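User: Please fill in residues for this 113-position structure.
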């Protein structure tokens, strides 16, 4: 199993980014997927989650600003992040399911003016 996350970068407050996580080595459509983040000095936290049936859930801090989606034909899960705030600065990780040890390598998002 490999998860390749990409799309991070430097963005000004109020800006947008779209993260991608491409999966290989699995039948992607069979698995729930999650995006997590870890800010400096803080624990890793769940940001957004999408099930095989495309049900979604979000951390309260990102509701209304972030959208998780998936494209099973491309084996990819996305995180569209709008209205970014400095407190969204973190390394973002994708994860296979909710309890697996399969994580992407992380992509850094920095929100700063």
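Assistant: Residues filled in for all 113 positions:
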């Amino acid at each position: 199993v490999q998860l390749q996350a990409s799309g991070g970068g430097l963005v000004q407050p109020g800006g947008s980014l779209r993260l991608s996580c491409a999966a290989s080595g699995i039948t992607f459509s069979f698995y729930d997927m999650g995006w997590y983040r870890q800010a400096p000095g803080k624990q890793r936290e769940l940001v957004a989650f999408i099930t095989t049936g495309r049900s979604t859930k979000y951390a309260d801090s990102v509701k209304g600003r972030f959208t998780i989606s998936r494209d099973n034909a491309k084996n990819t899960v996305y995180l569209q992040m709008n209205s970014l705030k400095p407190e969204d600065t973190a390394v973002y990780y994708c994860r296979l399911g909710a309890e697996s040890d399969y994580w992407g390598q992380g992509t850094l998002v920095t929100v700063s003016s």
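For context: The radius of gyration is 13 Å.
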